[in-house]
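step: validate -> pass
step: tokenize input -> pass
step: predict -> running
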Amino acid sequence: MSKRADSKYRSGPTTNWLKTKSFTESEFELLGVERERGKPAFALMAEPETRKYVGSAFVSVNREMRERLWKRVQEHAGPPPKDMPKRPATQWVKPGIKARVKHLRGEEDLRHTSLQDFWDEGT
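step: predict -> pass
step: emit ->
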């Protein structure tokens, strides 16, 4: 939250206060991609060291990168991680694909996320 510097504090609704969102980018491991016809696709993300699920990221990359992602997911298909609930529209992947995700800063869980890039670990 921020307030106009020249305004005085006053309770109640006012235009002097502004709610702003601050974003950051972090690296995660790709667990899988959830795709359903007619709905946006989401990349399921995990902490790199533990492979613990932390949230999903909207796949908002360009068409070329999206096609490269689908191909990579199919090539690295694997079983679902332990302790993950069943998600019928999800294609799971083996460990080794990293991703850069833009998300809301200061939140415990991933919120307002979008996939920015992905690569094989070690490249």
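step: describe -> The CA atoms of residues 4 and 32 lie 44 Å apart.
step: cleanup -> pass
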